Amino acid sequence: MSEEIIDAAEDVNVTFEDQQKINKFARNTSRITELKEEIEVKKVVKKRILFKEGKGL
Predict the structure, then answer these.
(1) Cα–Cα distance, 41 to 34 (Å, whole number)
(2) Is residue 41 part of a domain?
(3) Does some domain include residue 24?
(4) Which is one Gene Ontology cellular component term of this protein (predicted)?
(5) What tens digit of pLDDT does each residue of 31-57 get?
(6) Residue 54: per-residue pLDDT
(7) 20 to 30 Å CA-CA from 28: which of 5, 20, 34, 38?
(8) DSSP string, 4-52
């Protein structure tokens, strides 16, 4: 079974245009992950600011 998968992977030809699309998709996916992480950090900062304002600090 694993030999079939390896053989199939070796037979795949990717055009330059397809590789460019794959690369763009990978960059965009990475950027989305970074932005989601940034949003989570900003939510924590916002929560801390609101907490301090509520405490009168």
Answers:
(1) 11
(2) yes
(3) yes
(4) cytoplasm
(5) 999 999 999 999 999 999 999 988 755
(6) 87
(7) 5
(8) HHHHHHHT----HHHHHHHHHHHHHHHHHHHHHHHHHHHHHHHHHHHHH
pTM equals 0.65
Tokens of residue 37, six digits = 């992480």
pLDDT in tens, 3-29: 776 666 677 899 999 999 999 999 999
Structural domain containing residue 42? 18-56
For the chain, the residue count is 57
- Please report the pLDDT score of residue 10 as a whole number: 75
How many independent structural domains does the chain possess? 1
Handedness of CA 48, 51, 53, 57 (dihedral sign): negative
In a domain? residue 2: no
All residues at 6 or more sequence positions from 22 whose CB lies less than 8 Å from its CB, including other chains: 14
